[in-house]
Amino acid sequence: MVTEEIRMIAEQYDIDLSKIQGSGPNGEVTLEDLEKYIKEHFFPKVKEERRVFGIRKVIAERLSKSYREAVHVTLNMETEMDNLIEMRKKLTEKLNTKPSYTVLMLKCIAKALRDFIEINATMEEGRIVIYENININVAVDSPIGLITPVIRDVDKKSLEELLQDYADIVERAKKGALKEKDFVGGTFTITNLGMLGVDSFTPIINPPQIGILGLNRIVQRPIVKNGEIKIANTMMLSLTFDHRAIDGAPAARFLGRVKYYMENPEKVFESE
């Protein structure tokens, strides 16, 4: 005898109970039989299961902590990149190597952080700590997932030194050769998804820091300048900040300063 509960569940899935081979007395369909049928026919089949452990587990725990505790707010601001592109060409000729956009933008961001040092900070246990050293974590894709090793004193280093440091952490990240020292002491984080064709996203704060800047793809767009339409290379900057530690206005001013330095790179690279 099929129970009313089984009949009601079967109706929700449009299941003809006569097509299910029952395991109960006299071949009756049991609740377990029905659940098994539903699982086989209506739920996705599992291809594989992976345990979360090691650094991946640490990353998951930190991201969860970030969303539980920080009050995330994201600001987006478009910046023109034509001048930085031209500066890259000049620096390529001077250094005999093509500097990555990530490193060039690192210098601009570090200079903006020096101007707005209050965002170069961490927040723990109700205490905001603002740092003198500008140590920027750079999100790097690795065999174990996205990790954020740190480059120290970015504002004090020459472009050549930064190029060496960046190449070193990327190479060691891909080889799985980073050490604990490569992850401690960061004061701000950047993450670049531009090479993956992303126009805009919401970066997740790297706790206990209070800010992270997302860099997106450079794309040609029509813009209006001095009353005329022209084609320009542009990029969206995506800043996420912890609203517990800093308000929207100073965060927006910091983002505007990053934009200023990217659009006026001679202010950053005049001595290079």
TrEMBL record:
<dbReference type="GO" id="GO:0031405">
    <property type="term" value="F:lipoic acid binding"/>
</dbReference>
<comment type="similarity">
    <text>Belongs to the 2-oxoacid dehydrogenase family.</text>
</comment>
<dbReference type="GO" id="GO:0005737">
    <property type="term" value="C:cytoplasm"/>
</dbReference>
<keyword id="KW-0012">Acyltransferase</keyword>
<dbReference type="GO" id="GO:0016407">
    <property type="term" value="F:acetyltransferase activity"/>
</dbReference>
<protein>
    <submittedName>
        <fullName>2-oxo acid dehydrogenase subunit E2</fullName>
    </submittedName>
</protein>
<dbReference type="Pfam" id="PF02817">
    <property type="entry name" value="E3_binding"/>
</dbReference>
<keyword id="KW-0808">Transferase</keyword>
<dbReference type="InterPro" id="IPR001078">
    <property type="entry name" value="2-oxoacid_DH_actylTfrase"/>
</dbReference>
<dbReference type="InterPro" id="IPR050743">
    <property type="entry name" value="2-oxoacid_DH_E2_comp"/>
</dbReference>
<dbReference type="InterPro" id="IPR036625">
    <property type="entry name" value="E3-bd_dom_sf"/>
</dbReference>
<dbReference type="Pfam" id="PF00198">
    <property type="entry name" value="2-oxoacid_dh"/>
</dbReference>
<dbReference type="InterPro" id="IPR004167">
    <property type="entry name" value="PSBD"/>
</dbReference>
<dbReference type="InterPro" id="IPR023213">
    <property type="entry name" value="CAT-like_dom_sf"/>
</dbReference>
<feature type="domain" description="Peripheral subunit-binding (PSBD)">
    <location>
        <begin position="1"/>
        <end position="38"/>
    </location>
</feature>
